[in-house]
Each structure stands twice: as C-alpha cells, then as structure tokens.
Amino acid sequence: MGCEEAKMSWGVEKILLPTDGSSNSMHSISYAVDLAQKYDSDLHLLHVIETNSYKGVLPYPEGESLKNRINDNLRARGNEILKDMAKEIEDPSIEIKKVLREGTPSKEILDYIDENKIDIVVMSTHGRTGTSKFLMGSVAEKVVRKSNSPVLTINTKEEKLNK
C-alpha cells in the first residue's frame, strides 16, 4: 500500500505536536515532521501555559498587577517556544499552525484534539518515575489514557540514560 492509499484509509490530515519548550519535547519534532511528510498532513504546534499555577499565592492588592505581568511574560515565552519550534521544521511544504492556550496542559491538549479533529498526537515523555510521577502526574500519560485519537509517545534519550 502506497502513501496515498494509507492516507485515504487512515486519514492522517492533522498531526498535533504539543510542546512545553523543554529539550525533551524537541526530540518529537523529527517524528512529527516525518509523519507530516509521508501523509501530506498539517502540523499543529501547541503550547499550554499554566496561568493558574500560582492562584492564591498573590492575595495582596498589588498581586493582581504582578499576576498580569507574569501572565504576559508566560504568553511571550510561549510564543517564542512556538516560533523556535516552527523554525526547526525546515520543510516549507508542511502547513504549520502555532497555537498558544492557557489552562491545565493535559486538559487543554485533550480539548484541542477534539475541537480540531486531530488524527494523531506526537509527544515526548519526560521519564518521571516513582514518587515524582505519582505526585506530579504525567501529561503524556493523561493524554494517552483519555485521547480520542492515537498518541505516539517518544522516549527521550535522557530518559533512556536514566534507566
């Protein structure tokens, strides 16, 4: 079966590549680009900023102003991350959509998948184990368990070295 036949049977038109800007998430780019080239798919780059991660920490009157400055900085950094990731993709034939969202990363990724009818998600795992994984949770794990679309998880080189 050729690529065109595979695309018709599987229908890979939209690929989602969530990123947190870490070096781990950068390892997934080549996998997502390879799929996008093979299936002539659009590539959606998604970065989620957690604007509520410090909720309740800034209860003072000047806290609102500080919170707004922090959020502005997080948005600016998020846009830089998306811009840098898009630069890494050196194929002009791939249509790239850069999206910045705010909220809980796993929830926003899952909502984006459903809202945009994403065909496959490509994302890195961070390799947390034991107590750290239990306490921190894993965005990739939540997305794998709850996604309505297939999720290709990429183990990073750092993760393999830590085992």
Question: Could you outline the blueprint of secondary structure elements for this entry?
Answer:
Layout: H1 3-10, E1 14-18, H2 23-26, H3 29-39, E2 42-49, H4 63-88, E3 96-102, H5 105-115, E4 120-125, H6 130-136, H7 139-146, E5 151-155, H8 157-161
Parallel strand pairs: 1-2, 1-4, 2-3, 4-5
Helix pairs in contact: 5-7
Whole-Å distance between the termini?
38 Å
* Unreliable spans: none
User: How many beta-strand segments?
Assistant: 5
The number of distinct structural domains comes to 1
What is the alpha-carbon Rg in Å? 17 Å
CATH first level: which class?
Alpha Beta
Q: What's the main sheet like?
A: 5 strands, parallel
What keywords describe this structure?
alpha/beta; Rossmann fold; 5-stranded parallel beta sheet; Rossmann-like_a/b/a_fold; Universal_stress_UspA
In words, what does this structure look like?
This protein has helices at residues 3-10, 23-26, 29-39, 63-88, 105-115, 130-136, 139-146, 157-161; strands at 14-18, 42-49, 96-102, 120-125, 151-155. The longest helix is centred in the middle third of the chain and has 26 residues, at 63-88. With 163 residues, it is of the alpha/beta class. It starts with a helix and ends with a helix. It has a single domain (3-161), classed as Rossmann fold, CATH 3.40.50. The radius of gyration is 17 Å and the shape is globular.
Quick overview of this protein structure:
The chain has 163 residues and is of the alpha/beta class. It has eight helices and five strands; from the N terminus they run αβααβαβαβααβα.
